[in-house]
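Subject: for your reference before the review

Hello V.,

The reviewers asked for a structural picture of the protein, and I figured it would be easier to keep everything in one thread rather than splitting it across files. Below is the amino acid sequence we used in the manuscript, unchanged from the supplementary table.
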Amino acid sequence: MERSLRNVLVVSFGFLLLFTAYGGLQSLQSSLHSEEGLGVTALGSLYGGALLSSTCLPPLLIKKFGCKWTIVLSMCCYVAFSLGNFYASWYTLIPTSIVLGLGAAPLWSAQCTYLTIMGNTQAEKVGTVGRDVVNQYFGIFFLIFQSSGVWGNLISSLVFGQTPTQEAIPEEQLLSCGASDCLMATASTNSTQRPSQTLIYTLLGIYTGSGVLAVLLVAVFLEPTKDAQQKDKGEKKLPFWFTLLSTFRLLRDKRLRLLVLLPVYSGFEQAFLTGDYTRSYTTCALGIQFVGYVMICFSATNALCSLLYGRLSQHTGRIALYALGAVTHLSCSIALLLWRPDPRQLAVFFVFSGLWGVADAVWQTQNNVLYGVLFEKDKEAAFANYRLWEALGFTVAFGYSKFLCVSTKLYILLGVLSLAMVAYGTVEHLEAQSLARSAAAEQKQPAKEAVMETAM
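And here is what came back from the structure prediction:
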């Protein structure tokens, strides 16, 4: 097996183990810790920490420790969050959520930078186009990574399913589910009854062990990339403040300013799925024991589509995939506004989560590739920007989660997605113009040289 692919697989399986734990916990936060909105507040604090770290930490840590050890250190922050859930309170869950958030941006920026370097290195070795290999590597990564949602949610469903709730959901509760949920009814019901503490400890023990294995796998088997060290040898060492502000300096690029809505929307739609769809649709109408199964459907379609898009983009181009993602999420958001959740329509809950995964796979794979290709010379700062704006989307979405009706949140999703697609289309137009000018300049150059030779 080629060296670059082996390293990609090590990163991928490390993230698989880590997010098997975190993904399962994230899906359950709003349902498991519903008292006074603790779960949603923890998620908001988490992405607030990610927002803070995105402003400066990724370029600094990657430059100081390299991609490998930045990933290892950041993974430890995720393990701390699992430990904080053992005794979930405002004094344990909020601090560990912030710690996780601080590690999130460096983790993802290092991962994106590492995969981009591996893809370009392999492309140079075999003499092919760099963006095609990078696209394939991101497709492989997200296939393995997104399957973590399957395993994490399957574990939670099997553990909590040992004492399932069999009582019928009252008709009055169903009337306040879905888009009609304005968080007016906060009383505990049988469908949202908290599992026993023994089952919770069992689940948390499994998740913590999975996170520790992820740290060990990457620390032992992942090869450090020499990209940063090679760059330092040929360039003058930059001052601390220059590196610190590199994330913001890149915003001078018009293309990046136009693209910020893509990661913002990515944060909004993921926050809606994990915070609102799991609580206001699934838990409200079916019970907490179904959350894991519904999220498995999302993760499975997301994983399969991630691999598919990585290969398909070579033939269709990224514009067609972005169009697919936009149409799918627009259709789902409109349908969720109109649909009233009913336990007798069990399959519909899975259809929505599956379609959400089809579209989310577009944002997760193509957004990362787009940033890596457009800002190849400033990969660390570009991916830090991506995580900064995605974290902002998460933070804002979880911040207003306790105050707005679900229907209002869906209208916000529709508006942000529409604006993001218009801005993305503008960037593609600018890129097409730039390529056309470059091609014209290349054609003129040989003509000028021919004229000069004739004159001589």
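For the response letter, the relevant points are probably these. Residues 111 and 164 are 39 Å apart (CA to CA). The chain has 18 helices and no strands.

Happy to draft the paragraph if you're swamped.

O.
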